[in-house]
Amino acid sequence: MSSPKLWRGQTLKDRSLDRREQMLDVGEELLGTGGVSAVTTRAVMRQTNLSPRYFYETFDSREDLVIAVYDRVESRLFERMRGVHTAGGLRAAIREIFEICARYFEEDPGRARILLREPLGDDTLRRHSADRAPTFLRMLIPILGAEADTIVPTDDEDLAIAAAALSGSLVSVYLEWVDGRLGVSRERLATAAVALVFAQLEAVRQHD
């Protein structure tokens, strides 16, 4: 079998992946600073200095790029959560997760805009983030340890209700904090977020 042809030391697949990363980088910058309306094919092509044909070889639409940017920002946040310590118990582990979130958004407020603010006003991201929320909760269970099974609903309907309730309250709290209208420390924010989680999950359990 012949080896893949190289151009400047890269295969065709490598070049395609590089172009995708370039477009995601620019898409993240545009989405994080100007919102969904700023993410246009023309703007992405102008900043990457690529031909428009490469955009449509990589993404089906502008919305496809926006979702891919959202997923990448979310995935990088989740990767930071993998190192959470569980020896101190469930409440301490959840608190650490919220401190990780706060630091992640503090480092780059554009990340908060992408994951929290833009889904409030854009139909595509609103549907996508709503669909992702129960999955995200399920992904946290193995990170938090066996004790998480005692509070995270296993029933799909209960999980959907819990995800919607938590998303609404936590998004509001974190956006107020990122925008500077909630003048509390990162540690105080995490404490409040933990209290919200336990209160709302308890409410879902009581419904059963």
UniProtKB/TrEMBL annotation:
Protein name (database record): TetR family transcriptional regulator
Cross-referenced PANTHER family: HTH-TYPE TRANSCRIPTIONAL REGULATOR RUTR, POSSIBLE TRANSCRIPTIONAL REGULATORY PROTEIN (PROBABLY TETR-FAMILY)
Family annotation (Pfam families): TetR_N (PF00440)
GO molecular function: DNA-binding transcription factor activity; transcription cis-regulatory region binding
DNA-binding recorded as keyword: yes
InterPro entries named among the record's database cross-references: Homeodomain-like_sf, HTH-type_TetR-like_transc_reg, HTH_TetR
Positions of the HTH tetR-type domain: 17-77
DNA-binding residues: 40-59
Keyword annotations: DNA-binding
Transmembrane segments: none
